[in-house]
Amino acid sequence: MKPLVVLNKLLNVVCHADITRVLRLNTQDFVPNATEQDVRCEILDTVAVNQLVHNSNAPIDQAFADDFRRHNFLGVAVYCADELAGLSFFAAGTVLARHNSGGKQFTGIGLKLPEGTRYQFKVSVLPQYRGRRLHTAMNAAAIKHWGTDIVHTVITTTDWNNEPFLNSARRQGFVRYGMATEFIVAGKHIYTLPAHYEPRADRLHKRDRAMSNLVRFVAES
Questions:
Q1: pLDDT-based confidence at residue 173 (cuts at 50, 70, 90)
Q2: CATH number for the domain including 154?
């Protein structure tokens, strides 16, 4: 068993822990890959997302579909030989904490995003299709849909020991820049948050800065 997996199991013996790595991508630095012939991506609208609620291979429910419409998310589906293989979603502006959470017991950590920045979340690829660079294909579709002049930065998070996702993100051009954590100890939620990030200048700021052009992670009180 890998050391990070062992450490994660030990942590969860003494407390509930949601530990994530925070990554950023300059969309102009995105590295695509050649798409296999039977792979295609589709930009999802509200009707398509509502239909996917009834697809057993789609990890979304009606509450999420309602949020998709209410908050104007962007969704991307990837298909292999016309079978749903994966999904990915993107949010702008204020991201509710429940969309960056490690499970029902956690409150989650919200985000405030400046113009031109998106948060990628709820990325899923069915097990039988993993290893085919479908995460990359979905990101390529999203970036093509926006254009790099409209969306210059993508922020995402993943479990700190999710090496397959981290390796995929690194190949695409994502860079790690911090950690976001939520611990539950004796019923109390304790958070550690990354520094604020200024996408245009590609630099970090102390958390006491209150500029509108910063990516900010926000813990629920």
A1: very high
A2: 3.40.630.30
